[in-house]
Design a protein that fits this description.
- The protein is mainly α.
- It is 62% helix and 3% strand.
- The protein contains 47 helices and five strands.
- It has a five-stranded parallel beta sheet, with helices on both faces.
- It is elongated, with a radius of gyration of 34 Å.
- The two termini are 47 Å apart.
């Protein structure tokens, strides 16, 4: 259990209602904690579970009020009562001087329950979250590699707190002065707070409402046990102040004296307590005759009066008090002495004087707990009274003292932020070290502040470009526009470090591309390539340019780029990561252009090699994603899913739970859609959308999530729901400059077509033609815009519809994926002359039966069965559609309602049949292998490899 140093317990007045609410919450919390509130060992799941999965009796209590109304005293009583009820206590307090120190509050809450353990014990306790949350909580040093994104870190902290709440139930988390908590901790707790009611956790916060930051607004609005938020503390009434005065100075205090005490303190409990102490110290007679003196006594307890009283304590005591005000809370006496320039005896004497003057609290039960001010109001008043120049100097001395005391550069950085630039290399070095530590710990905003201050110092001439680069890396997630400015400024600096220059150029291109400025990203690389002398470095820059060009939907000369890429990739051997990235881009380009499947897969296999991480620190994840998606379009979705599962696991290990994980979920949903596993696809797509919403609307990841979910809903027959989704997210009002798959404009046209708006759909699809055809993107397996356009114009221009469908068939055959050819044939049959439909549909069913595309097979079976009036085919269509989750198709065929059951693994009979088919045994000829292809996620050409992989996993 965690408890702050215990001071003398104060009596509270007129807080009965608040304490009754606390007691009620603790009682229910205690009842919930007596049940089965255990948790398994360290998990590697989503990180934000809700514990026992039942209503656990937890809640949020938020107390608000101006300074001095007794929030701290009330929370001290909450802590005492929680401990008395055998609650595990997590306690923390925000500090005015510690706001710029990231995770300061989170560390106070959690670190005491985990500190002191060995690394092995910590790894066992935290599981896969160890390297993600450990640095933020000060439990371990950051590991090498890319840092977690802020959302991933929050998920990790969610998991740790949830785990503590369940394992050590019941738990009371008490946060005082929340308005001064560091932004990283406060925004995390504000987002976590609604989950308290699902855990054996009482979360109690107190804050000054006028100072609560915007990112903690949840504490004002969350409903809870009291029925509203927050519980506002009221000033004491005249009767309460009168009782307080008489208990302090004697029952003989007359009414006029007590009334004046209430008037001059305005019912503020802190001021009333301090006033009565002063009356007692001065031996003032508590009668009406002395009442006029109270106003001056009260003034001496605050503002200029407090400062004047403080300054009369002597120069060494004043210096020591100022040093304490600079250091903040839990102040080591020896550290304050070092900052004040005092010896140990002088420091001890100054401490005693300050305690006697009721400026510092008296000693607590824990001798090493550090010094504390009696009230934050006193600390604030003293800090603001320090002359400006001296305050700056004290922060500078504090930074040096903190480092010398072994507390690290991060602890020193908050002091250096308050100093003036002096061209000091030590300051720059310390701030850079702190920024690197915070960036790797998942606090990029803190790193940005520190590097911006380092830049103003300023750094040495030859160091400035590196600081600008680091500043650009720190601001990448939060301020992309400023990141571009920082990186361009870095390139403008005269420096001679080729590796640094390459890193700056690559990072600049990355942030431009992620800001939907793909042409600018390509141009920045193109300008640098001719001046890069090292052959390998130049190839790296070329690979980055090829990648961003591949994603540029309006690339001006795509065919020429494709030819250059093909010439380069075809002569590379894949000897290093850069070469394999180029080869991977070649595979993707070949897929878009509809080159033969064998060629596409050949390059994809070359790119993947023996190891192909999705989480290299200095590279994006785009090429690994493209190499995986190539397999899906080539009718090897099983292999694509294997690659995505490995990549998703890497993202989760790294703590990349924002855009990266959203992409992974959304694209895995698309793979499931292509396989005809629509219910699973919808679930994954919604998970991807939830993550994308946290990243922000209008971002590339948001476009992917919406397009894939809308496509899935259309396949399930929920047209109205898909349309509302599009309207809610402004999908279709404009389209991104980046290539998105499935193509956003084509998906929007599908929506229009499903709603019967054929002319509007045709207009969108003709725009897709104008955008993709000049780029040489001709593969209908990647984007079947021709097929949708054929359906859109069939009623008014059947000849054009047939021509479009015929061209799509030719292109699909050139690519060679059975699912693509089968889909083209099925749609061609819709617009064909009646006498041609049967032949087209028979071939479609034959090809799709030998592919992994379950939903397309169901559609083709339904169309052929209807065309022939064949009950057997229609029954097979119903079974296949139900397995896929294509509810509307099942209903249209008169099938019974009910969830389809997808059996992922092969049955023994299917496995034997697949083995026979691989050997081309006569017993397998003419047999229906469709379930095998769909379950293994492959076509006939990939059956042997897929079966071998399946056998390894059995």
């Amino acid at each position: 259990m965690t408890e702050r140093p215990t001071r003398r317990r104060r009596k509270m007045f007129e807080r009965e209602a608040e304490l009754a609410t606390v007691d009620e919450a603790l009682e229910q919390l205690g009842d919930s904690g007596t049940g089965d509130a255990t948790a398994s060992g360290a998990r590697t799941g989503s990180g934000s579970g809700s514990g026992s999965g039942r209503s656990a009796g937890g809640t949020l209590l938020a107390f608000s009020g101006p300074a001095g109304l007794g929030k701290t005293t009330l929370l001290a009583e909450v802590r005492r009562r929680a401990l008395a009820r055998n609650c595990t206590l997590l306690a923390a307090r925000g500090g005015e001087q510690e706001q710029s120190q990231p995770f300061h509050v989170a560390r106070q809450l959690i670190q005491p329950h985990l500190a002191g353990r060995s690394e092995e014990e910590l790894r066992a306790a935290l599981g896969s979250w160890y390297s993600i949350v450990g640095p933020a909580l000060g439990l371990c040093a950051p590991e090498q590699g890319a840092p977690p994104d802020p959302q991933g870190l929050r998920d990790g902290l969610d998991w740790v707190l949830t785990h503590l709440a369940v394992q050590r139930a019941p738990v009371a988390l008490v946060l005082d002065d929340a308005h001064w908590a560091d932004p990283e901790s406060l925004s995390w707790l504000a987002a976590f707070a609604p989950r308290a009611e699902h855990l054996p956790l009482l979360l109690v916060v107190a804050y000054r409402p006028e100072e609560l930051p915007a990112h903690a607004e949840a504490f004002r609005t969350l409903p809870g046990r009291a029925g509203h938020r927050p519980l506002a503390l009221a000033p004491l009434t005249e009767a309460a102040v009168s009782t307080l005065v008489r208990e302090a100075v004697g029952d003989h205090a007359d009414d006029a004296f007590c009334r004046e005490a209430w008037a001059v303190t305005t019912g503020n409990p802190f001021e009333a307590v301090e006033l009565t102490a002063k009356v007692r110290d001065k031996g003032l007679d508590p009668t009406s005759a002395s009442a006029p003196l109270l106003r001056d006594l009260a003034a001496a307890q605050r503002g200029s009066g407090l400062v004047a009283r403080f300054e009369r304590l002597g120069p060494s005591t004043v210096r020591f008090g100022w040093a304490c005000a600079v250091l903040g809370t839990a102040i080591p006496q020896e550290l304050a002495a070092r900052v004040a320039g005092l010896g140990s005896e002088e420091a001890a004497d100054a401490t005693a004087r300050l305690q006697e003057a009721r400026i510092l609290s008296g000693p607590g039960e824990e001798p090493d707990a550090g010094l504390e001010f009696v009230h934050p109001l006193i600390a604030t008043a003293l800090y603001r009274a320090i002359p400006d120049a001296l305050r700056v100097a004290l922060h500078g001395q504090a930074a040096v003292a903190v480092v010398d005391a072994g507390l690290g550069s991060s602890a020193a950085a908050r002091h250096l932020l308050e100093t003036h630039p002096e061209n000091d290399p030590w300051v720059v070095r310390t701030l850079r070290e702190a920024a690197a530590e915070n960036l790797r710990a998942g606090a990029p905003e803190a790193a940005r502040r520190q590097l911006a201050r380092a830049l103003r110092e300023p750094p040495d001439f030859d160091e400035r470009a590196a600081v600008l680069y680091e500043l650009g890396c720190a601001s990448l997630l939060t301020e992309p526009a400023n990141t571009v400015n920082h990186l361009r400024a870095a390139l403008a600096e005269p420096f001679d470090d080729p590796a640094l220059r390459q890193g700056i150029v690559i990072r600049l291109a990355q942030v431009l591309a992620h800001s939907d400025r793909l042409a600018d990203a390509s141009d920045s690389l193109a300008r640098e390539i001719p001046y890069t002398r090292d052959v390998r470095a130049r190839l790296r820059l070329q690979s980055e340019q090829f990648m961003w060009d591949a994603f540029n939907a309006v690339e001006p000369d795509s065919p020429a780029r494709s030819r250059r890429l093909a010439r380069l990739a075809d002569r590379l051997t894949g000897r290093d990561l850069t070469e394999r990235y180029v080869i991977g881009l070649r595979a993707w380009d070949a897929c878009l252009r509809g080159e033969a499947v064998d060629v596409v897969l050949h390059h994809a296999v070359r790119a993947l090699g023996t190891e192909f991480s999705w989480a290299y620190e200095d590279r994006g994840f785009e090429v690994p994603v493209l190499a995986a998606m190539v397999h899906m379009y080539a009718d090897r979705p099983g292999r694509a899913e294997e690659l995505f599962e490995a990549g998703t696991a890497e993202f989760e290990r790294q703590g990349w739970r924002g855009a990266h994980l959203s992409f992974a979920y959304s694209l895995r949903a698309y793979i499931r859609y292509r396989r005809g596993r629509l219910a699973e696809a919808e679930e994954l797509a919604r998970a991807g959308l939830r993550l994308a919403e946290r990243v922000g609307r209008g971002t590339p990841v948001h476009w992917y999530a919406i397009a894939i979910l809308a496509t899935t809903l259309l396949a399930r027959g929920r047209v109205d729901e898909a349309w509302e989704l599009a309207r809610e997210h402004a999908f279709g009002e404009s389209f991104p400059a980046a290539v998105v798959f499935p193509d956003s404009q084509t998906v929007y046209a599908e929506l229009l077509l499903a709603r019967g708006q054929t002319k509007a759909a045709a207009a969108e699809l003709e725009a897709v033609d104008r955008r993709l055809s000049p780029r040489g993107i001709r593969n209908p397996s990647w984007c079947p815009w021709q097929l949708h356009l054929a359906r859109a114009v069939a009623a008014e221009d059947p000849d054009r519809a047939r021509a479009l469908a015929g061209d799509a068939i030719r292109r699909a055959r050139a690519f060679g994926a059975p699912s693509g050819v089968g889909q083209a044939l099925r749609v061609a049959a819709e617009v064909a002359a009646p006498e041609e439909r049967q032949g087209l549909l028979r071939e479609a069913v034959e090809l799709l039966s030998a592919s992994p595309a379950g939903y397309e097979l169901a559609c083709a079976l339904a169309a052929l069965g209807t065309e022939l009036g064949d009950p057997e085919l229609l029954a097979r269509a119903v079974v296949t559609a139900r397995e896929c989750g294509a509810d509307a198709l099942v209903a249209s065929l008169g099938g019974a309602e009910g969830e389809g059951v997808w059996a992922a693994g092969l049955t023994e009979e299917e496995y034997r049949l697949a083995e026979l088919a691989v050997r081309d045994a006569p017993a397998a000829r003419g047999r229906d292998l469709s379930p095998v292809y769909r379950k293994l996620g492959t076509d006939r050409a990939g059956l042997a490899e897929a079966l071998e992989s399946h056998a390894r996993d059995r």
